[in-house]
Amino acid sequence: MSLAAYGHCLRGVVSRELLRFVHQRSRFVAALVRPLIWLFVFAAGFRMALGVAMTEPYQTYILYEVYIVPGLVGMIQLFNGMQSSLSMVYDREMGSMRVLLVSPFPRWYLLVCKLLAGTLVSIVQVYVFLVIAYLYGVKAPLMGYVLILPALVVTGFMVGALGMLLSSFVRQLENFAGIMNFVIFPMFFLSSALYPLWRIREGSYLVYQVAALNPFTYAVEMIRFAMYERFNGDATLIVVATTAVLLGLAILAYNPARGMMTRKAGAGAE
């Protein structure tokens, strides 16, 4: 097929996801309520108790609300990635996903289009949140709001690929909603989103080790450094590698010849 056909397919998948997002206003509000509660309520209460000493990429001592904004950006993308995968389970139950997957386009391309659409939605949510944080007084260098974009794209693909991989193992919508809670909250709280790794290590070395192995930690640090016009090569390498592995596993899982979709279909027939 021609490049124009691939472009038309990409435009159709992205447009469908954006229209769904526009029509589901409650989803947009819910995506902002969670990080705003942390920023306005918890950060205000923890400001004195959890002030952050000078550490990279910051050039001076910072308030707690300044530190957690990149982590809350990661929270938005994490929840949106799982929400997009939840919609895949719903589409599969309703039959619309089957129509998409039997199209003549390669399945890997369709899944990447779906990931890109979900990532674009999360980026819109992130920038709305950053505007609110800016008005609240948490300000980053202006160029940082541009440099953060590639980090948001990579992080969006990573959490989206994780959600897509999980969705391949689940047949019912209710089951996936439960699995989301067992994935989202450990990934978020066992990371550097809310507390620096050095402070976690002071409290519990075991939790520190878990956080250091959590790929979401490096996604948050990649976003943090980019937001303050710095580049964290180690974090970027880990996030890109994790994204490649998760995306490859998701494509394999949705492969009708070898993936979990075929196994579940066979189990259902039995």
From TrEMBL:
Protein topology in the membrane: Multi-pass membrane protein
Localization annotation: Cell inner membrane; Membrane
Membrane-crossing residue ranges in chain numbering: 28-49, 61-79, 108-136, 142-166, 178-198, 235-254
Keyword Transmembrane found: yes
Family matches, as Pfam families: ABC2_membrane
Record keywords, A-Z: Cell membrane, Membrane, Transmembrane, Transmembrane helix, Transport
PROSITE patterns: ABC_TM2 (PS51012)
Signal peptide: none
Highest rank taxon of the organism: Bacteria
Residue ranges occupied by any ABC transmembrane type-2 domain in the UniProt entry: 26-257
InterPro entries, A to Z: ABC2_TM (IPR013525), ABC2_TM_bact-type (IPR047817), ABC_2_transport (IPR000412), Alc_ABC_transptr_permease (IPR022403), Nod_factor_ABC_transporter (IPR051784)
The family this protein is said to belong to: Belongs to the ABC-2 integral membrane protein family.
NCBIfam families hit by this protein: phenyl_ABC_PedC (TIGR03861)
Protein name stated in the entry: Transport permease protein
